Amino acid sequence: MISLLVAVLYVVVGVMLVYTMRHYLFTLNRLFGRHRQPYVDIGAAGWPRVAVFIPCHNEEKVIGHMLDALLACDYPSESFVLIPIDDRSRDGTRRILEDYAARFPGRVRPFYRTGGTGGKAAALRDASEQAPGSDAPIHLVFDADYLPGRGLVKQLVGPFFDPETGAVMGRVVPLNVSKSLLTRLLDLERTGGYQVDQQARMNLGLIPQYGGTVGGVRRSALQAVGGWRDDTLAEDTDMTFRLVLAGWEVAYQNRSECYEEVPETWRSRIAQIKRWARGHNQALARHWWPLLKRPPHLRRRAVLDGLLLLGVYAVGPLLVLGWGVALALYYMGVQLAAGLAAVFAVAMYSTLGNFAAFFEVAAGARLDGSRGRVRLLPFLIVGFLVSLVSVTWATVTQLATAWRRSPRTWEKTTRHRPPELAVPKNGVGEQ
Amino acid sequence: MPGKAADPALQQANRLEALRIRGHRGGIIRPHRSMAGIPWTAWRFLTTVVLGLGGLAGYVALLPWISRLWQLIFERGQAYLALPIQVSQQQLALPAGWQLTIPAVTAVTPIPDNRVLMIAGMASLGVLLLSFLLPQRLTPLRYFLRLMVLIQATALLYFWGSPEPFPYRIADHVYILLTAGLVVMALVPLLLGFTLHVFDLALWRKVVLTVLILGHLVVFVPLNVLIHVWLLMHATAVVMPVLFLVFGLLLNVFIFVAFYGWALSWRSDLERREAVPPVHAT
To answer: Which of A186, A230, A306, B96 could form an S-S bond across to A122 if both were Cys, CB 3.0 to 4.6 Å?
Structure first.
């Protein structure tokens, strides 16, 4: 029994160390490596037609700002159509969209859903197939609370000049950073995740993740992999792996920054991360085996990175399992920390292991040039505890109810933006 | 070749290269943050290696003094806190056949009786209740309190129902925490080597940070263990699991992260050298 528990514990520690090494590799690459930013900041080109999809469900607080910002973009207006998708909103979203459609005929073409499966994925599926203007070769997708800068659309379209690129993802930057400790912690997390993690994946030729909130897909690639699936909670992760498995490249553009509203309350944050965990786990269940079989176009390191990316939310429950086993061994009197070598192993994990994520975040913040916020680094531990519990709970309940096929519903993040918040006429987000 | 003038064309190219990034008032135009990186130079590599290994060597060289300091802290602490323990010494085997003397305590480990278990149970329930009463904005604290209650509940269950005697004495607890503290301190210079020294900070700042963290831990670790002993003597071994798992090694890591975050908020050497003095009104 004890041997089994010790073996389980060392397996958990081993998995954690693999993720640790990954964090260190990414961070060192981002700091000292050569950066890949294909076709960034192209000023003049034969710009293709673009359809921008904005799924909305009760977004009256933010959708106007989003449309204003997009309409202020410097993309040729004749090649650019905005398709806000109103999915059965019960607030004033529809009225706002009708107003914009009337004021900008041909440029804003709302798509209204009144039935069918609920959720963002289903909304995207219907609109990308049926909405007027959806025949554009490039489909961009934004969340309704995002605020793109003037040049963002061009930056996101640029990488599609490479015919192998199937999807592009930009960088997410929180807008409401100073609201609370939570928003500041989320700002740090996003910094580590995008400035370091995503860019390093791009540099190393791995699998940058198409995040679904500020990015786009090539329509032909979308059609080649069967369009958006409406039976998924994380259509972005699902799309990333379907494209990669089908031989398309996913590009990350660190220069393409777009502002978002991060959750301002812990309740909202917990709901968000639970949704992400369930969606990601779903993608793990669907794609780990096809990925492990390694299609010939994928390099081994990309496969390994893909598997680690898919398993990123499964690590939470695994860590909790490791803690449980460690506690049981403690009561059994198994002093793993008695011998110096064992102490060294435990300390290695406790410091070096857990520390890799802090290194990543700190490096990202310093590269951003905003070093003052790094002083909040220790507080990430408390955020980590909340995330760990939430992800574990989401995974356990997901496994327990896997046999039940419940209808998909909108599980959207609560918006906190005050309606009077003005958006600068020229858009926001330019540095 | 000494004495030979550089190629004029090369000189001009160098001047142009320097001008290309010359900015307002002689400053340097930096790349956008999305493209920024850190140049890897031989000097940086050298300082990273030297400071990392040198810090470790310095720590090892100071171990006998650290040992004496810890012994002193334990003896004074035992007297100050009036702890019913005997402080002695024990040998810790280090790699390469080295030995280090660290403090050892001899004490009767108080085992909780039913009354103590009842009180501990009520206190745990109180903390659990408190975690539900705290406002939503303190969610991390709520979760932390519940984690502590969960671990405490396992201890209560163990002491209440386990037929086996509790496998740890206060002496074991002290030994493990002191040993783990020593290992964490040994890792500090190495960890800083490739997570801090790679950044563009002045050399003296890197040295100062290493000294600050090690200095803090050298004092903190024995004092923390003494507080544990005091709590164990008063609250019995029923609190040992919580102390070990939550307030032991984890606190050392937390301290390290706090110092690290502080250091990375310091101005870079490049920023310091480039700083333009304020324009004085005339």
So the answer is: A230
Per DSSP, the three-state class of B119 is helix
Could you tell me if A23 lies within 8 Å of chain B, comparing CB atoms?
no
- My answer on whether B218 and B133 are in the same domain is no
Domain co-membership, B185 together with B262 = yes
How many alpha carbons fall within 13 Å on the CB side of residue A350? 27
Residue B279 lies inside a defined structural domain of this protein? no
A:B CB pairs within 8 Å = 156
Which of A336, A358, A368 has the most B C-beta neighbours within 10 Å, making it the best mutation to test the interface with B? A358
- What does the alpha-carbon distance between residue A308 and residue B60 come to, in Å, rounded to a whole number? 38
d(CA A93, CA A97): 6
Which residue matches tokens 């690129």? A165
Report the greatest alpha carbon distance in chain B: 91
How many residues are recorded in chain A? 431
A197–chain B nearest CA distance, Å:
12
Full strand arrangement of the beta sheet holding A80-87: A111-113, A80-87, A50-56, A138-142, A214-218, A165-174, A249-260, A147-148
Q: State the DSSP string of B6-58.
A: PPHHHHHHHHHHHHHTB-GGG-BPPPPTTT------HHHHHHHHHHHHHHHHH
- The per-residue pLDDT for range A354-377, each reduced to its tens digit, is 678 899 999 999 999 888 899 999
ipTM value: 0.86
Q: Are residues B261 and B135 in the same domain?
A: no
Are B187 and A199 an interchain contact pair (Cβ–Cβ within 8 Å)?
no
> In which band, very low, low, confident or very high, does the pLDDT at B277 lie, cut at 50, 70 and 90?
low
Task: Kindly tell me if the per-residue pLDDT of A20 is higher than 70.
Answer: yes
Chain B's closest residue to A361, CA to CA, is B261
pLDDT in tens, A158-207: 999 999 999 999 999 998 898 999 999 999 999 999 999 999 999 999 99
Over the range B221-255, which residues count as b (16 or more CB within 10 Å of their CB) and which as e? Answer: bbebbbebbbebbebbbbbbbbbbbebbbebbbeb
Q: Please check whether residues B93 and B76 belong to one and the same domain.
A: yes
Arithmetic mean of pLDDT, A79-87: 94
Of B144, B180, B258, the CB nearest to A343: B180
- With 0-12 / 13-18 / 19 or more C-beta atoms within 10 angstroms meaning exposed / middle / buried, residue A104 is middle
Residue B35 has pLDDT above 70, yes or no: yes
Residue B200 and residue B244 in one domain: yes
Taking the CA of residue B222 and the nearest CA in chain A, the distance in Å comes to: 17
Contact B140 A32 (CB under 8 A): no
| A178 shares contact with chain B (CB less than 8 Å) | no
Question: Do B234 and B98 reside in the same domain of the chain?
Answer: yes
Q: Cβ contacts of residue B188 below 8 Å, gap of 6+?
A: B55, B59, B210, B213, B214, B217, B256
Instruction: State how beta strands A138-142 and A249-260 pair.
Output: unpaired
pLDDT value of residue A400: 86
- B233 shares its domain with B99: yes
Decide if B87 is inside a domain: yes
- The parent domain of residue B183 ranges over 50-110+168-270
Nearest-neighbour CA in chain A from B242: distance (Å): 10
Q: How confident is the model at residue A429 (pLDDT cuts 50, 70, 90)?
A: very low
Verify whether the Cβ–Cβ distance A266 to B167 is below 8 Å: no
